[in-house]
Amino acid sequence: MALTLDSKTPEGPLADKWDKHKFDLKLVAPHNRRKFEVIVVGSGLAGAAAAASLGEAGYNVSVFTYHDSPRRAHSIAAQGGINGAKNYKNDGDSIQRLFYDTIKGGDYRSRESNVYRLAQSSVNIIDQATAQGVPFAREYGGLLDNRSFGGAQVSRTFYARGQTGQQLLLGAYQALARQIQLGTVTLYNRMDMQDVVVHDGRAVGITARDLLTGEISAHSAHAVLLATGGYGNVYFLSTNAKACNVTATWRAHKRGAAFANPCFTQIHPTCIPPADEFQSKLTLMSESLRNDGRIWVPSALEETRAPGDIQDADRDYFLERKYPAFGNLVPRDVASRNAKIVVDEGRGVGSLKNGVYLDFADSIGRLGKETIKARYGNLFDMYERITGEDPYSVPMRIYPATHYTMGGLWVDYNLQTTVPGLFALGEANFSDHGANRLGASALMQGLADGYFVAPSTVAGYLSGLLGDAPVETSHEAFTSSLASTQDMVDQLMAIKGTKTPDHFHRELGKLVWDYCGMSRNRAGLETALSEIPALRDEFWKEVKVLGSGNGFNQSLEKALRVADFMEMAELKVSDALHREESCGGHFREEHQTPEGEALRDDEDFAYVAAWEYGGPDIHKDAILNKEPLIFDNVKLSQRSYK
Amino acid sequence: MSTTLNLKLKVWRQESANDVGAFEYYDVAVADDASFLEMLDYVNEGLILDDREPIAFDHDCREGICGSCSLMIDGQAHGPQKGTATCQLFMRKFSDGDEIVVEPWRAAGFPLVKDLAVNRAAFDRIIEAGGYISVNTGAAPDANITLVPKEAADAAMDAAACIGCGACVAACPNSAGNLFTAAKLQHLNLLPQGQPERLARTEAMVDKMEEFFGSCTNHGECQEACPKEISVDFIAMMNRDYLKAKLANRKRSGQKKFG
Amino acid sequence: MTQATESRPGADAPEVNGPPKQSRFWIVEFYSSAIGKKWVMALTGIGLMGFVLVHMVGNLKMFLGRTEFDHYAESLRTLLYPIFPHGVVLWIFRIGLIVMFGLHISSAYTLTRMNNRARPIKYQSPRDYVAVTFASRTMRWTGIIIGLYLIFHLADLTWGFANPDYVRGAAYDNLVASFERWPIAIIYILANIALGIHLFHGGWSIFQSTGMNNPRYNSARRGFAAGFAILVAGINCLFPIAVLAGVVH
């Protein structure tokens, strides 16, 4: 049964669509709002912002987070900044330009109308955050400071030192705390969503597991908002937090929500490479380092000298060599892929030969150590803390790592998934970044969805339900969801196998990274498609979870999440296999220009691949639905950084 | 190249707040380029294969910003490295043969959940009491309409860097929550946007804090334990604002009366 | 409010100290808070520091001889005489001191109870402190020593029943008689060492508790506390030494 993917994009000129749409949406009168129950899952930027805003409006909101405090969501780790088309620098920025940069940066695989709305909202986000007391960097006159970020030609990035994500999240969290105090929002902390309950074709609630007692409970609502982030941890090693997982969106997918473009993942070029086998996560180093650092590897395969002893003639500054115009500042995907190429050739550096040098010797010589220290001191300190090497005297070692996932639940212009009443916000949806996300845009999207889009569109949905009471949790839809959730827990506890959940996660991550990482090819993807189901079978036979299902059990939490990654990974690989083109973060080796650059196929693949869950044999059963992407306002062109 | 450290680990194990806990000992050989939490992961993998329940501990981002990780390591909150959360503490800070003692945060305000994990909801209650600026979505004026001196923004940012980990409470001989509360409070009290609610906020947050924690006797241990090195100067500022909150004629000075 | 978490003991904040006290009188409400008590301790601390300073300066008169010293002692009773009747101002001071001591001790007692409640289960392994000083960790003990000594000191030199040679009005002779006994002199010196330690932390703590915090003088706060402690305790210790050495007799 194929879905009809109606994007519900409003008619009219691009710039007027959102206003027109807001006017067309039905409203809920203030005195009626308290009659509606809304569940928000996730308390990051999108979730906290949506919950606070809906609470302010007068709806009864429940927020679920698996953390002990809503403030710990992984939005907090974003470093660089947030884009806002304020044009405070008078350098030619505008909503139109931010829109254009985002569409082009996404390699023309996102929906024009959504992206334009994002650019429009960016302006309000800065106002909102400033009023909340987010301590953005200031100029001496007291005005807001901006910087250029991620290769953008205008300075439109607002920042709070290297902790912009933290400060924006605290702003949203504080707004949420205010609503909790006022009683409009109920907080369920240390509660992990397990299932979306669908009745009569609508999302009517969720089931969630109390991480402290193991009790699984049902929660009924008129609408459910998933703001549960991305699936980058499918790679095991990523810059995501350890608990980030795909469970919420995957279980929603299994209940009917289409999953769009799962193969689009972003790899960040400047992370610290793993030091050994049991490394648990990768640490991002700000992209700004590439402004002053030169990337190189030894020219010779058998090079054994210390980096400082290698003469310039024996070094390969491969980015500068291949891309003389942009050099070390080529976009994230290009920089990442080229690092992979030289490491795969065996020219990697470090004891595991798994990195490339990012060398500041020239900059230190030219600008002096003090200048470099002023610019990057905290990053250098962090690097030294983690690696034990002094980057002022020894070149840094960097390697790309998964950082963000552009794919996610398919949503229409209202951020509603293919299940009515189920909305997806922030990184959990697919909508705005196409095949590649620009720097400083993730924070912007999470907050735009949470503060400005969802409150209007969710109201539009709720207006049609006036007078309907939420479905009783004693209803069969809830009891069967509770039973299947409990069943999964019981099954995992009963296996009593021989390998830990982490073991399986690591194995899965290796498969996905090797075959569906920075560059992909048919043979590799097919290998992955045969190995992932085998690993999944082994998982369900051999995983070992100790302790009890009734109580605080971090192994069980992990196992439940790995179980979902096992399935989702297969869909991701399927999607990568089906997309016979290269675009943004998705590089298929079969589709490249003679110079080795990504070769898009706009003729055949200018669409969103929205996968429908078909059955447990993911690759065979998944049903592909296509939403064609129509570009009325931008001209599609090949990216070139030569 | 990394070297391997042979360590003796002494870890507090306790099934729940209502059970009796005790230290257990583990021998571990770990590379010195592992982080402290990776070392615990490694111990846990071994425990599971050995049919023993893994050690429960809170952690998430592992880059020193989410504030999930805790741990009293060798008698110091977040271990021996200054200005560093446990997740960014690396094993090369230790030497071969060391015995390392790991305990949970201990405070009545942070009841134990299991093993090394504690419940820090008291911090959320303090924020809910008034740790915000009341501005509804959509009601904000243009961001540049209010000038904020760079110094004010910088000072506010120094306070706002708090990650809410609770090391200040854990390290304080009195289990006082003053550094956390002061940091959260002064972040907002230092900014022009925070002025209308300044005194009400101070009163509400301090009163809420005192429901859970001990009192500050100016040892200064919190500042040393803080992974963000937040200064006790903010506590002094809070003390001053608290007196003002109680003394001032709020009605006539244009301040909100009650939290 | 967070009704969902209230029923979940591991997820919601625990009950420790109970809700804050509400009162019609702001001063009662203020004093009932811990920060209010710290203010009171700081302000009474300033008053008591003034007292020990003046007391020390007054006692220096012993080096000028019996006449000067007794004259000074007597003059305390005739302060502001004849505006006030004989001895009244001295009693006003005494009452003020008693009130300050009372508030200082009562606050300290309540806060100590609160702090004990805040960590009912102690750390089971040794702590490795970084910032605490011997002085800051022993405030309650040095405080108790000073309090006990104070009672003895009054019994010895004001009320006289602890001093077999006590003669009412003969301040100088009483003092010399007392300090000529070794045990008394040693107790006096030990009490003053305790006082010095107490002042070393208290003197700096005042600044924090009352929010006196400014980079212009922050670096001087510790110095002030140390200087004041050494000045008062050090000079006080000279008195029994001077008596035992025969400089004052």
What does this protein look like?
Chain A has 642 residues and is of the alpha+beta class. Chain A has 18 helices and 19 strands. Among the domains of chain A are: 135 residues, Succinate dehydrogenase/fumarate reductase flavoprotein, catalytic domain (Flavocytochrome C3, Chain A, domain 1); 126 residues, Methane Monooxygenase Hydroxylase, Chain G, domain 1, CATH 1.20.58.100. In chain A, α3 links the parallel β1 and β2. Chain B is an alpha+beta fold and 259 residues long. Chain B folds into two domains: 110 residues, Ubiquitin-like (UB roll) (Roll), CATH 3.10.20.30; 127 residues, Alpha-helical ferredoxin (Fumarate Reductase Iron-sulfur Protein, Chain B, domain 2, Orthogonal Bundle), CATH 1.10.1060. Chain B is built from eight helices and seven strands; from the N terminus they run ββαβββββααααααα. In chain B, the strands form two sheets. Chain B has a five-stranded mixed sheet. Chain B has a two-stranded antiparallel ribbon with strand order 6-7. The longest helix of chain B has 15 residues. Chain C has one domain: Up-down Bundle (3 helical TM bundles of succinate and fumarate reductases), CATH 1.20.1300.10. Chain C contains ten helices and no strands. The N terminus of chain C is likely disordered. Chains B and C meet through α2, α6, α7 and α8 of B and α2, α3, α5 and α9 of C.
Short description:
The complex is a heterotrimer of chains A (642), B (259) and C (249). With 259 residues, chain B is of the alpha+beta class. Chain B contains 8 helices and 7 strands; from the N terminus they run E-E-H-E-E-E-E-E-H-H-H-H-H-H-H.
- Average the pLDDT over all residues of chain A and give the rounded result: 95
Strand segment count of chain B: 7
**SS elements, strand count of chain A:** 19
The number of distinct structural domains of chain B comes to: 2
- Which range best describes the helical content of chain A: under 10%, 10-25%, 25-40%, 40-55%, 55-70% or over 70%? 25-40%
